[in-house]
Amino acid sequence: MRRVFRSLQARYMLIILTALVLMQVGYLVLSIAMSLGLDMQDLKPTESAVQVEKEWHEAAGSLAEVSPEVIRDLFAAWKSRYPEASMFWVDGDGVLREQTAGREGEIPTQWTAVSTAQFIKSRYGGDPFTVIAFVGQEGSGGFVVIEMPRAMFDPPIMQVYDRFGTWVAIGMIVIVVVFILISYLFFRRIRKRLTQLQEAMTLRDVDGLPVQVELSGKDEIGQLEQSFNEMVLKLKVSKQREEQEEQLRRELIANLSHDLRTPLTKIRAQAYTIGKEEVSSDGRRAIEALERSVVNLDRLIDNLMSYTLLMAGRYQYNPQTTDIVRLVKEHLATWYPLFEKEGIEVDADLQPLRQYEWRVDPLWMGRVLDNLYQNVLRHARSGRYIQVTLTSAEQYDAIIVSDHGPGMQSGQSEERGAGIGLSIVDRMLRGMDLDWDIQSDERGTTIIIKRYRK
Amino acid sequence: MVRILYIEDEREIGEWVTRDLTERGYQVTWLTSGEGAEQHARQADVAVLDVMLPGLDGFSVGKRLKREAPDLPILMLSARSAVEDKVEGLSFADDYLTKPFHPEELAARIEVLLRRTQKFEDVLMLRHLKIQLQNMQIIDTRTGEEIVLTGKQYHLFQYFLRHLNQILTKEQLYEAVWGEPYLEGDKTLMVHIRYLREKIEQNPAEPQIIETIRGIGYRVRR
Lengths: 454, 222
Hints:
The structure holds two protein chains of two kinds. Chain A is an alpha+beta fold. In chain A, 56% of the residues lie in helices and 15% in strands. In chain A, strand 10 and strand 11 (444-452) form a beta hairpin. Chain B has helices at 11-23, 38-41, 58-68, 83-90, 103-116, 151-162, 170-178, 188-200, and strands spanning 3-7, 27-31, 46-50, 74-78, 95-98, 123-126, 129-132, 137-140, 145-147, 167-169, 210-213, 217-220. Classes of the chains: A alpha+beta, B alpha/beta. Chain A binds chain B through residues 250, 253-254, 257-258, 260-262, 264-269, 272-273, 294-295, 298, 302, 305, 316, 326, 329-330, 332-334, 336-337, 346-350, 352, 363, and chain B through 10, 12-13, 16-17, 20, 52, 78-85, 98-103, 165-169, 171-172, 184, 213-217.
């Protein structure tokens, strides 16, 4: 039973029930108050219409003599009994002979059979309550009519309503207001709790997850809070698991990287040691090829790791408003010595852009440029030229990297790869909402990175 | 003689690096684990640490070394190339180099670290200039006269010397020396470089010390 009353629905039903009971109790209290505290003495006892009709017939029929005086006496006797009643007498010739005061001029002075019938028809079942009785035994003395307000036959409670209607209405209004107030308080509390819950749902802990809420009851909202807490707990567990998996993945990649790069370092160490000895020109070329392979393999491992992370959506992405002219310039400055060492002419045409603040991740952008420059070093070294241009077109700003290498389709590159470097470029540029295009023929390759102006 | 504390568990790599650095004139103390490395921290001029070590990892060893000798420059040498690893390493270390590295690069980076802490050399020879790094006294070896620079020229040249062989953009130079954001089209830096060249170059029209890298910036090479 207690569980039932924890329910908000049950509580609200209880409020409605209380209101209904309150109404009935209100009636009762009102009745008691009226009977005890109010002056009921002047309330008339209930009159019976049938009784009045019977008595009027008897009184009129029992008149031994028909004279104005007798009729007047009759009227006076009934008037004293029923002050609100009015009476008149029409004699056997249809002439209005007597009437009680107050209705002069309203009653026709001459009655015919038709007018009498019309009168009867108009009063039948209506208000005032009308009784027509023949005067005397034979009825030759005409007829007397008594008219009384129908309200006189109402039960006393009706009279109470008539007299104390305002109080009853006020009582009803008070009951309704009390009901509305209780309902308002009930719903206000519910609303407050729901608002608190909604606010708690928007709060975030340091781990970015919602914070558990304190249970405010055992009703439906309490159950909702409990479900919310359970959900938060599940999210936390899931997040922990995800972090553990992430940690494992990082460890795996780190270990894999270590396991692959350590032997590479050893190969490089051996190649370097041999290179310091006196070796033939063939031997020297072999050592150089070995060195290059080590560098390429290292790069490939790095790309493979990055690509795996990118595909899994695990590569950290922190976009920020970046001065792209500055980024490209500073990045090219770090690559310049390498190009210089390889005898590649660097033509930097870094003009200010119309919109130079791009929302990109500087590390991603650096990685993209690294891969493009790396490609020039690996595949277009023979062209001995790289041009990096910043330019603004009608609709977009662009970074253009072009070389004079043999082109991508030529198959003349010294080291062909699976294109994983460009796949990373593609994925990262698309991730940063940038377009890119590649044109390659035997005269060289041009890569254009576009950012359309908004 | 410059002393290097080197911690590497891979025997072949350890032998190779030790041999190479010794041949370059350094005195190398090679340990195969981080155990007891702190004892050597105070005697070393620079520390080179592998990250994946048996027992205590390189990051923990590096932090311990820094606690023991806060001025000791540390270079992390690791096969771990993820950004997170580099960030973690550079939170306490002074440099981070990934394997497979070239011994020339390792030596160059050690040199930079030593130069930064003024432990490498006191005198720098740059073409016809002899520069006392301690007090930044610049002597023209052809005439034996001292070249006196103004405040801004001095800061500019010192910044170049601290970043030897690096190409520095106009923005980097201006912001480092003037401490304000560089505005495109501002000629102040160019004017100061011209004055500086007039003082230190043999022929300012064909500068040998401060190179112009067209479209990018400037460089002072050894």
